[in-house]
Amino acid sequence: MKKVLIALDYGLSAQKIAEKGFELAKSMNAKVTLLHVVADESYYTSMDSAPFMGFYGYDFFNIDKRDSLIESSKNFLEKIKRHLKDSDIEVVAEQGDFPSVILDTATKLHSNIIIMGSHSKNWLEKAVIGGVTESVLAKTKIPMFIIPIKEHN
Question: CA separation (Å) from 123 to 2, 7, 61, 98?
């Protein structure tokens, strides 16, 4: 059976990436795994960099103190799974370096394709920050399906 790994961040684009990736996976009769990588805990607590507000009504600023970020990430992925209406979707939340965890997970699951979004950034942002999708693309031997995301202010 074919396997598709859809890597998601908490950005508002996660819904589009999940839906488009799921659509492709279903056209291939593939098993779907949703992945979220927790890399930097400060990303989840800063009001300035919190891109996940409002996604399916999930408010990460009200995370139960007993919940870890991994458990919260799994809850986030479970909400996406319910939105996609497919109980066979597997959800995986891991902590570590974004590209490394994505590639390790894809290899471990024997994924046939990795699906990710690519946020539009200007040349300076790409040069200074780089991009997770670009980094995965540079290091993988697994085919990728990249969904362009245009972010408007």
Answer: 36, 23, 32, 21
- Return the amino acid letter for 114: I
What is the SS3 assignment for 106? helix
Q: Give me the residue spans of the domains in the chain.
A: 3-149
CB atoms within 10 A of CB 43: 15
Banded pLDDT at 2 (limits 50, 70, 90): very high
Domain 3-149, CATH homologous superfamily name and number:
HUPs (3.40.50.620)
What pLDDT is stored for residue 18 in this prediction? 96
pLDDT digits 0-9 by tens, 27-69: 999 999 999 998 766 555 544 434 443 344 444 444 544 458 8
3-state SS assignment for residue 93? strand
Per the listing, tokens 């202010």 go with 153
